[in-house]
Amino acid sequence: MSSPAGKCERPPAPITAASATCSGDMFPLASMPADLLELIGWRVLAGDLLDYMRFRAVCAHSRSSTINPRGLAITDSRFHPRRWMMLPAGHRLHLEDGRKRFLNLDTGVFVRPQVPLLDDHCVLCSVDGLLLMQRQHCDQDAQISLLHPFTGDVAKFPPITYPMVVNLFGSTSHLYSNNGYAYLLPGKVTASLTVNADEGVAMITIVLQDAARVLFATTKDKQWRLSAWRFSPKESNISSQGKIYMFQPKPRSSVEQRILQIDPPRPENIYGSSSSLFPAPKVIAIFPTGTRNALFELVECDSEILLIDSSEYILTKRMAVYRISDLIQGRVTPLTSIGDKALLVGVSTSGSVIGRNLSVSLKAMPTIGADMIVCQDPIHGKYLGQYHIGSGTWSLRDMVCDIYSVYGCCTCSLIDHMYGACHCFIS
Fold it and tell me: Distance between alpha carbon 377 and the CA centroid of its chain, in Å?
């Protein structure tokens, strides 16, 4: 069914674990055929992975009739926790027992799973809800790992060596090295994941800010490889469904912006593929900016890649949102609504100082209005602005951190912590 013009189509509400158990009565599940329980399980999984895990825990029959995600949670993309994010370090956001809080960007649900790798690993970025991490102990190698925070599954990749860093940059100015290994900086990494479920092989592609080539390796490789082609990435790039999207630098005189897409190798070529088989970036859309000073951001919303068109003085100008799929077809039509979603630009995810862009539901962020673009004042950092894409109006508020309740607790909201506006941070 086609969506109205200018609307961002949203999928129907999925079945949850609670609704599948008939208001808490467990006996109907025990009498259901196994194939029917399996079908219900897949419907539950379409909503959220944790609902699926709770559904499996209802009884022995539901467990035996559905697939256990543990052991498959990385190589089977159906079990990726795509709409979950680990909150940045901040006052009362995490517990003293070391457990980190994760937020569901659609439902607003918080969970506190035990993530042992965080004791000696640094989170570089999130890939489909999985955590790309690097070991930080100087007396060990700097191995790259991909962790599923809810099942504990880990996929291990080789460490990145110093000679490879020289091939990327010609120096180590963007990274730091020790004992012949290169350590990546959180927030300066964008990664995509490709899996061959039949072979149980996963491949990670890494784009480093300002690097001219991409790194890629599989779980069966002993070293990382470099793409044969070179390019010039921009800071705003995202990964989605195994692909990486970015902007191509344009001449100062140009009023057109080219959007690039990097495809992964075919699944059958993941293992043992050479650098020459890695597809080069391709131009998928050209956007007529109309001005040389425009700034652009990319964000994923309801499985759509959106382009946010703004300007240097972001809190005084109009903004617009476009679907990349529309731009590919040559339709330059701004959206007038994104449903019950808001777009957060420049969020400090996973404690990173480099901002990332997110889409959130009003259930997760009830203090934000629908159809809003939320961003921080890029000049003074004093205001948090909300831009309504339908009316073209701004609403601003001060981000004040020194307001405390009578109990001495920080009263800053979750959104303040996510933007790094609250100074009550703990290490």
Answer: 23
Beta bridge partners of 296: 309
What does the pLDDT look like over 328-345, one tens digit per residue?
Answer: 999 999 999 999 999 998
**Mean pLDDT throughout 195-207?**
88
What are the C-alpha distances in Å from 349 to residues 175, 345, 354, 415, 418?
19, 11, 8, 11, 7
- Is the separation of the CB atoms in 168 and 208 below 8 Å? yes
User: Is the distance from CB of 103 to CB of 149 less than 8 angstroms?
Assistant: no
In sequence order, what are the residues at sequence separation of 6 or more whose Cβ sits closer than 8 angstroms to the Cβ of residue 318? 392
List, in sequence order, every beta strand (DSSP E) within 109-255: 110-111, 121-127, 130-135, 144-147, 154-157, 176-178, 181-183, 189-196, 201-208, 214-218, 225-226, 238-240, 243-248
The string of DSSP codes covering 113-137 is ---GGGGTEEEEEEETTEEEEEE--
Q: Do 280 and 229 touch, CB atoms closer than 8 A? A: yes
Per residue in 141-161, pLDDT (tens digit) is: 788 999 999 999 999 999 988
* 125 half-sphere exposure, CB direction, 13 A CA radius: 24
Determine the Cα–Cα distance for residues 162 and 158; give it in Å rounded to an integer. 13
10 Å CB burial of residue 214 (0-12, 13-18, 19+) is buried
pTM for the full predicted model: 0.83
